[in-house]
Amino acid sequence: MLKFQAVTKIYSSKPEPIIALQNVSFAVSPGEFICLVGKSGAGKTTLIKLLTGYEKPTEGGVFFKNTNIHELPSSGLQKIRRKIGVVHQDYKLLQSKTVFENLSYIMQVIGISDTDIKRDVAQVLDIVGLESRTCSFPNELSGGEKQRLAVARALIHRPDMVVADEPTGNLDLYNAYEVISLFKKISELGATVILATHNREIVDSLKKRVITLDQGRIISDEKDGRFIL
Amino acid sequence: MKLKGTECLATARHSVPFKNLMFIKIKRILKFGWQSFSRNKGLSFQVVFIMAVASFFILGFFMIWQSGVFLADTLGKKVDISIYFKRDAGEQDILRIKDDILLLSDNIKNIEYVSKENALALFTAEHQDDEFYLTALQEVQENPLLPALNVYSNDPAYYEKITEFLASPENQSKVERISYNQLKNRQAISRLREMINGFKIFGIIFLGLLGLLVIIITANIIRLTFIVLKEEVSAMKLVGADNWFVRGPFIAQTAFYGLFAVIVIDGLAMLALYFLNSKIKAWLLSFDLLRYFLSNFLLIFGVQLGFVVILGFLATLLAMRKHLRT
């Protein structure tokens, strides 16, 4: 499903370049649930940016379904992005669109009919508890609500893979576990899930494969792993 | 949050059939464009204003050009040269001279004979409200006006031929005087026509420069908006929207700006012409600008709309090109 092959990412910066990822390699099978852990600055977000084509690797390749996504033309990359649902750390919500429109946008992009959009958006809003905020704009939402909206947007178009960068950072414990349960459910439905977090309790309770990053390198990759930092 | 209901994430969905996809996408792009237009009122006002200025100049170009053409035509129809005959010159002799002049050249459009009686009737009609002239006529007691031939020509060069023809001893004895004042008229008409041609060239260059200016200003306004919307465009791209699905609504939005700008300007122009038409008619030798505007409305509206929409399109492409590289 996904393969990182000897990926290095260096940001040119003064006085000296920053090595965000160094020779990172791993593979993810379809339907797998992975926790990506590491301290702040370990390279989790860079890894996710490379995975979504937002950044290009300095060396190595990122393969999605055996296709190097960084060698694709723009239109090809967009098609890949439609198959990946991403919860960004900074949400990346569409500020000029309402909650309903934020969710319907991705479905409109992939050409879902209006009838199905109305039905599914209503249902997903109900799942994430934002049914009363349908017509609100993102700047009218609390941090937790924004996070739930970002989660809903990553799931609504039933992607092959869901990637979440600290999706519970702004949520209370109850809602954090609800979001994680949602990801588990999505995984059971066949989607691959990559969860980047530094929440020890969540990682330990999940008992899933854990990839640990430290200073841009993978220091551990364990099935049924635990938070080791 | 509740996990109950997550089954919906596995229920069957209906993609829009491929043949309808393009139509649905265009509909969605227009809808997004309209949303953006109606939600960003401040920006919409600024761009509509800039585009309204551009469409005002286009309208002005049409109006000035057509008024110039009308003035040139009207002045061209005015008397070119008048030959006044002696009081005792016989009508037969005058008509013979008229026929002879007509034979001089094909460029003589028409010659009109005005008898003493007709001249008096025309003069009286023209000055019916002017007490001074009417009293003077009554005091003279007899018709002081002379019979005349009014010659209309396409080319001022033939005035010389006519003058030479009238200088022959036989004709000279019958001619009282020739009015060459109209030659100045002819020169004025030539100058007016040159000005119209010049205006056309100047107008097209001016509109070209104006277009460039509108592109730069609109592109900058849109670019300033995109600095704010940069993250938004980036977010759209990250969920897989293709370039046209991102760019389309912005283009639609600028088309709405253009449409509103043209509607506003043409509406105001129509109102202004409705109330000022009688004064404009007096200034422009009875040229009915309102009638011209109404009878050519579709053409003018189409040119204005096409101009501002194309400018908006170019400005949007220019402003967005950097942000679409995400």
Descriptive account of the structure:
The complex is a heterodimer of chains A (229) and B (326). The model of chain A has no long low-confidence stretch (mean pLDDT 90). The relative contact order of chain A is 0.20. Chain A has 229 residues and is an alpha/beta fold. Chain A is built from seven helices and ten strands. Chain A has a six-stranded mixed β-sheet with strand order 6-7-8-3-9-10, with helices on both faces. In chain A, strand 9 (209-214) and strand 10 (217-222) form a beta hairpin. Chain A starts with a strand and ends in a 7-residue tail after the last strand. In chain A, helix 3 packs across helix 4 (114-127). By secondary structure, chain B is of the alpha+beta class. The relative contact order of chain B is 0.16. A four-stranded antiparallel β-sheet of chain B has the order 2-3-1-4. The mean pLDDT of chain B is 80. Chain B has helices at 18-39, 41-76, 91-104, 116-126, 131-140, 158-166, 169-172, 181-238, 243-283, 289-295, 297-320, and strands at residues 81-85, 108-114, 148-153, 175-179. Chain B is built from eleven helices and four strands. In chain B, helix 9 (243-283) runs antiparallel to helix 10. The A-B interface holds A 52, 54, 74-75, 78-83, 86, 88, 92-97, 101, 105-106, 108-113, 115-116, 119-120, 123-124, 126-129, 148, 153, 155-156, 158, 175, 178-179, 181-182, 185-186, 189 and B 1-3, 5-6, 8-10, 13-16, 21, 24-25, 28, 35-36, 39-40, 229, 231-232, 234-243, 245, 326.
Question: What can be said about this structure in brief?
Answer:
Chain A is globular.
Features:
heterodimer; A: 229 residues; alpha/beta; 6-stranded mixed sheet; 4-stranded antiparallel sheet; 7 helices; 34% helix; globular; B: 326 residues; alpha+beta; 72% helix; elongated
